[in-house]
Structure formats: structure tokens, C-alpha cells
TrEMBL record:
Bilayer topology: Multi-pass membrane protein
PANTHER family hit by this protein: ABC TRANSPORTER PERMEASE YTRF (PTHR30572:SF4), MEMBRANE COMPONENT OF TRANSPORTER-RELATED (PTHR30572)
Protein name: Permease
Entry's localization field: Cell membrane
Record field: transmembrane: 21-42, 269-292, 312-345, 357-375
Keywords of this entry: Cell membrane, Membrane, Transmembrane, Transmembrane helix
Organism, scientific name: Paenibacillus marchantiophytorum
Length: 392
């Protein structure tokens, strides 16, 4: 018997009971669609992380100052002294106050306020869309000037030019000197689009903040990062007398660590999704055993008129493979659809579809049909014609 004839017979059986076929395929559909969706989300997350860090460059170090005992903080001037050290091209200490009340005219909103210096924007690979960024003189004279993100500008001024307008930041009036181009969040999750950036000394005085908790240090190039990191570690250890007073994060190491964590999580989720495929395979085997019982007399008649064992084996094996393959195809369509729709449902989450993942998931679903259909098919093929015809 030709494969095409076997396929036609399997299709006829599938069409004879569509509801049971759909219910049988459900486990495979869920498994394949889950694998494709979860892998695309995982790969999208990895690419997003990579893009985020590459936007900052691989020669950037992030220093978190935690303090230790009496040495709880470093002053702005102490941190900037290191800028003259060999291998360091720029330093940008920062202070951040989240959810700060910002008021313009009769509109009041809460945004993050970042106090920093004139090096910060270049290190964050940001750009000014209108006006200018902070200058060294703004810090020296503690000017009340502010650079705002696109979201802040749109919220308060719409399409009007905000330059030279004054906003009330935590009770103090700041003159807007620049608007940034839209960039999104940085590695710490802070969005420049929804931030107000002011001179660090001005913020320190107005907000009565003495602690600098985060500092960005830029090495002259990627090769100098390790040397700069060692210099920073020695300097901070001497200040805090302990390694518990600070953390230094290397951009390259963070990329690797975050990608490894994302990959591990994706693999775990895919393993869970793969269980659905196995459960689907068990469902196929169960239904095929029922089918063999229901069609025992048919098997007896076919064998009595000359059908060989392999014909019966192939008939049920093709039927099981067809059901799992159809489930895999539907799961593939559902998975691709979910992957494409996911960014619209969750704008902060990217997805990345892979042809290979879809192909492997589909082939695995077909393999599940072969594996779990083998036992029922073998059982049917071993039936003796006399016993099968006597079966009631």
C-alpha cells in the first residue's frame, strides 16, 4: 500500500470524528505554541539587553557606592579627582530622586530627577534635540537649569518650545535649557525620556542630599576597562576599608551575565513547555489505543483479504503522525501569532522569531506522533484475523 493511500485513509479517519481529533491535538498545539512563544520572548529579551548595553559602549563601568560604617559616602570632588587617572576618560557621579513633583503652570506630574554633570549625556550616548545640555559653569555656579526628556516636554508643553520656560522642581524654579532626543531606558532601568536632569551640586543643595550612590566611569577604550576597574577597586577599598562598601559593574560582564540568566530562564520555560508535548503524545497514544479497539473487526477483515502486518502498522502509524503533525502545524501558527502580537500587548517586551525553533518544534511534534503511535500501531498489526473478526 502506498503512502499516499495511507495518508488518504488517515485523513478520512480524522474527518470522521473532528471533535475528538481536535481534543487529541490540544496538548501538541499548546506544547508547540508555548515553545515558539517562550523562545521568541527569551531571544527578544536577550537582544534587547545586548542592544541596551551596546548603546552605552563596552568601556563603561557603573560604580554603586554603598558605604561602610563611618565612611558612608564620597563627595563629588573626591570622585572627580580620579578623572585624571590613566585610562579614565570621564566620570559622571549621579544622584537620583524618583517620583519627584514637577509643576508647570497648572499641571503637576511626578518624574525622576537626576543630578549629574556635563559628562553624563555623552556617556549615556544621548543627544540633545533642542537647546543644550548641562555645562561645567552650571555646576560651578549651581545654576537652576534643567534638561528634560521628550516625555516631560510633551506632557507640559505639547508642541510648544519649552526652552527658557521655568518649571517647579520640588519647590524650586529651574529654567529649561534643553530637550533630549527620545532614547528609552538605560541599563539601570531609568528612562531619560521621563527624567529631568539638573546640575548635581544644585540638586544636592535643594534636595538636601549628601550621598552619591551611583557613578559612571568611562575608560578610554575597551582594552583599558580591566585596568580602570582595578584602579577603582583599590581607591574604593582604601576609602571604605572593605569590599562591601561598593560594587563595580563592567558593561561587558553585565551583558554576558544578563544573557546567561535570560538563556537559563528560557531553557527552563521551554523544558516546561516540552512537557506539554509529551502529555500531548500520551493523549495521542490513548486515543489510538481506543481507535484500535473500535476498529478491531475492520483490522480482521483487512487481514483476511490479504493485508500484511506492515500495512496495518503503517496505517495506524501514519494516522498518529498525521494527528500530531496537524497539531504541530496549528501550534506553529498559534506560536508565531502570539510572538508577533506579544509586543503589542506588552510594549516593553521585544520578541525575536527564529525559523529554526519553529522547524524543530514542528518536527518534534511529528516525532512525538511516531513514538507514541508506535505501540498502538504495533498492537493492531499483531492481531490475528480470526480473533479480530470474533471481537465484539
Amino acid at each position: 500500500m502506498r503512502i499516499w493511500e495511507l495518508f488518504q485513509m488517515a485523513m478520512a479517519t480524522v474527518r470522521s470524528n473532528p471533535l475528538r481529533t481536535v481534543l487529541t491535538m490540544l496538548g501538541v498545539i499548546i506544547g508547540v505554541s508555548s515553545v515558539i512563544t517562550l523562545v521568541s520572548i527569551g531571544q527578544g529579551t536577550s537582544k534587547s539587553i545586548e542592544k541596551q548595553y551596546e548603546g552605552l559602549g563596552t568601556n563603561l563601568l557603573t560604580v554603586n557606592l554603598l558605604g561602610n560604617g563611618r565612611a558612608t559616602q564620597l563627595k563629588y570632588e573626591e570622585l572627580m579627582e580620579m578623572e585624571g587617572t590613566s585610562g579614565i576618560s570621564a566620570i559622571a557621579p549621579t544622584m537620583t530622586r524618583n517620583s519627584t513633583s514637577i509643576k508647570y503652570d497648572r499641571t503637576t506630574q511626578t518624574y525622576n530627577v537626576i543630578g549629574t554633570n556635563d559628562r553624563y549625556l555623552d556617556m549615556q550616548k544621548g543627544e540633545v534635540d533642542n537647546g543644550r545640555f548641562l555645562a561645567a559653569a552650571d555646576l560651578d555656579f549651581r545654576n537652576h537649569v534643567a534638561v528634560i526628556g521628550t516625555e516631560v516636554a510633551t506632557k507640559f508643553f505639547g508642541k510648544d518650545d519649552p526652552i527658557n520656560e521655568e518649571i517647579n522642581v520640588n519647590g524650586y524654579m529651574y529654567t529649561i535649557i534643553g530637550v533630549l532626543k527620545s532614547k528609552g531606558s538605560n541599563t539601570s532601568g531609568t528612562s531619560l525620556d521621563s527624567s529631568v536632569i539638573v546640575p548635581l551640586p544644585t540638586m544636592s543643595r535643594d534636595f538636601k542630599l549628601g550621598s552619591i550612590r551611583s557613578t559612571y566611569v568611562e575608560a578610554v577604550n575597551g582594552d583599558a576597562v580591566s585596568k580602570v576597574q582595578q584602579v577603582l577597586e583599590r581607591y574604593l577599598y582604601n576609602k571604605f576599608k572593605s569590599t562591601s562598601g561598593y560594587n563595580i559593574f563592567n558593561s561587558s560582564e553585565l551583558i554576558t551575565a544578563r544573557q546567561a540568566a535570560s538563556s537559563t530562564l528560557t531553557n527552563q520555560l521551554v523544558a516546561v513547555a516540552a512537557i506539554s508535548l509529551l502529555v500531548g503524545g500520551i493523549g495521542i497514544m490513548n486515543i489510538m489505543l481506543v481507535t484500535v479497539s473500535e476498529r478491531t473487526r475492520e483490522i480482521g477483515i483487512r487481514k483476511s483479504i490479504g493485508a500484511k502486518r506492515r500495512n496495518i502498522l503503517l496505517q495506524f502509524l501514519v494516522e498518529a503522525t498525521l494527528i500530531s503533525g496537524m497539531g504541530g502545524l496549528i501550534g506553529l501558527i498559534v506560536g508565531v501569532g502570539l510572538s508577533l502580537a506579544w509586543p503589542y500587548m506588552n510594549p516593553s517586551q521585544e520578541t525575536s522569531l527564529s525559523i529554526n525553533v519553529g522547524l524543530y518544534a514542528f518536527l518534534f511534534s511529528a516525532l512525538v506522533g511516531v513514538i507514541f503511535g508506535l505501540y498502538p500501531a504495533n498492537k493492531a498489526s499483531k492481531l490475528k484475523p480470526i480473533d479480530a473478526l470474533r471481537y465484539d
